[in-house]
Write a structure and sequence with these properties.
Order of helices and strands: HHHH
Number of strands: 0
Number of helices: 4
Helix content: 55-70%
Structural class: mainly alpha
Shape: rod-shaped
Largest sheet: none
Distance between the termini: 75 Å
C-alpha cells in the first residue's frame, strides 16, 4: 500500500456515518479505507476499469439473457457429424447440372 500523506476532514450526516461504519464492519475495513476507495473509484485510480454500478448493470444484463443449454464436446461432435452427413446426402441427391 502507498504511504498516506494528506489529511482530509469532512462532515457527513448521521445516516451517512452509520452506513459507512456498517459497511466497514461488513468488509472488515476502516471507514477511511472505504472513503479512499470511493474517491479512487469516482475520480480516478480505479481498482477496476468499470465502476461498481457499471459492473452490477453488466451482471444484471447477463442474468436477463436467455439461458443456453450446455452441450458436451461429445454431443457437439455428434451434432456436427450428423449435420455434415445430412448435407453430404442432400448434395448426393441433387441432379447434376
Amino acid at each position: 500500500m502507498h504511504m498516506l500523506k494528506e489529511r482530509l476532514q469532512i462532515l457527513v450526516s448521521t445516516e451517512q456515518k452509520r452506513r459507512l461504519e456498517a459497511e466497514a464492519r461488513t468488509r472488515g475495513e476502516s471507514v477511511g479505507g472505504l472513503v479512499r476507495e470511493a474517491i479512487d473509484e469516482r475520480y480516478g485510480k480505479r481498482k477496476y476499469k468499470f465502476s461498481q454500478a457499471e459492473r452490477k448493470a453488466a451482471i444484471e444484463r447477463l442474468r436477463a439473457m436467455p439461458t443456453i443449454p450446455f452441450v458436451t464436446p461429445e454431443e457437439l461432435n455428434r451434432i456436427t457429424e450428423e449435420t455434415s452427413a445430412e448435407r453430404f446426402l442432400k448434395l448426393q441427391d441433387q441432379p447434376e447440372q
